[in-house]
């Protein structure tokens, strides 16, 4: 572990790693892309939510965001915008 990294930087690295190593290429691209694009915009509290979200399996991850689970409300808008961007490209 690199002691030069702040706790916030370590949290971001953990989240990014988990989002890019899902087990299927499609989920790596969608989940990892969402995290990569949004990571720097999130507050510490939202990063903790995001860590909980990427700890879910893929089915649960998408179910939580697509059914607008109240626990993850703060992450829904960034995810919706990311999905719109994917759909338009």
Please provide the count of β strands. Answer: 0
Mean of pLDDT: 91
Oligomeric assembly: single chain
Backbone shape: globular
Estimate the helix proportion, in percent. over 70%
Distance between the termini: 38 Å
Summarize the structure.
This protein has 89 residues and is mainly α. Helices cover 72% and strands 0% of the residues.
What does this structure look like?
- This protein is mainly alpha-helical and 89 residues long.
- The chain has a single domain, classed as DNA polymerase, domain 1, CATH 1.10.150.
- The chain is 72% helix and 0% strand.
- It contains 5 helices and no strands.
- It has helices at 7-20, 25-38, 44-54, 58-66, 73-88.
- Helix 2 crosses helix 5 (73-88).
- It is globular and about 40 Å long.
- The relative contact order is 0.13.
Topology:
Layout lengths: L6 H14 L4 H14 L5 H11 L3 H9 L6 H16 L1
Features:
89 residues, mainly alpha, DNA polymerase, domain 1
